[in-house]
Amino acid sequence: SSCSVSSGQYYVSDDCSSVPPSPCNPLSVYAGNISQYNNTTFYFIGITTINDNVTMTAVKNVTLHGLDQSPSINCNGVTRISLHHSNHITISNLLFSDCPVRVDSSSNVTITNSVFASGPHEISSTISNAFDVKILSVTFTGLYVLQIYYVSLPVCSSELLHYSLVLTNVTFNTGSRMKLDMAHGTTYNVSIIFDHVQYCTNYPFILVGGLFYSFIINSSFHGVNDGPGFFIDVVENSESSNCTYPSIQIASTFVIEDSRFYNNKQGLKIISK
Questions:
Q1: 246: which of 89, 157, 159, 206 lies 20 to 30 Å off by Cα?
Q2: Per-residue confidence of the chain (273 residues) as pLDDT tens digits?
Q3: Are 63 and 164 found together in one domain?
Q4: How many domains does the chain have?
Q5: Per its UniProt record, what InterPro entries does this chain match (predicted)?
């Protein structure tokens, strides 16, 4: 059986000499066995530079939180932070600079009060089959790309499973963009809420091959010189991802309220293949 580090609080900084709390170490000190830190909060102070990939696997109740006014994690576009098969993960009050973040096969993930920024080159963060995800008060800037994927479960459940994706007070600044790819068929339903999402110059692209309920409210999509303000591409489900449920009528729903599409070459575009 694997060892487990006792729960607690740990401080992370490239320069711990100016950090009164202890224990404080550069992230590399924790990274070697970081998957053993359950029920733990890592407080980031100042600048943290990641020179090697940081991978957390099968952790639970872990928080990465920036303490001071400008805590940042820098990856220089070559390293990344990954979370696999984990649950109850919170990332808050951090600036990710040229830093890809990958989350897959996890649940109850919250990203809040953070900024994801790229330099002159495109940087992508990927969320894949992460269920019950909240992205709250987050800004994407530069050429940063947020990619979210849902794929089918290997077997059908006896009851329809419901998961959620919530974006609230999220801003995609000039150059940044989002792609949402749903290829899960009817193996489960995803409830997607965009509340106060501001999107500029690039259009969000949603590929629909799965069951969903989408609610967009108080949001705006504007400034796309070549293309639609919002693009939905509906594709046919593969037979392997089609499940049926007794006494349930399966249908996807798309609702827009109090939102604006303006200064785009095209408005809302929906195509079906």
A1: 206
A2: 344 445 689 999 998 887 776 788 999 888 888 888 899 999 999 999 999 999 999 999 999 999 887 899 999 888 999 999 999 999 999 999 999 999 999 999 999 999 999 988 999 999 999 999 999 999 999 999 999 999 999 999 999 999 999 999 999 998 899 999 999 999 999 999 999 999 988 888 899 999 999 999 999 999 888 888 888 898 876 666 789 898 888 889 999 999 998 888 888 888 987
A3: no
A4: 2
A5: Pectin_lyase_fold/virulence
The two tokens of residue 183 are: 């290829």
Q: Which domain holds residue 212?
A: 118-273
Quick one: 273 and 186 in the same domain?
yes
pTM: 0.93
Residue reference for tokens 């070549």: 226
Residues 105 and 129 reside in one and the same domain: no
Q: Quick one: 248 and 124 in the same domain?
A: yes
β-bridge pairing 131-141 and 162-172:
parallel
Q: Is the dihedral of CA 195, 188, 255, 125 positive or negative?
A: positive
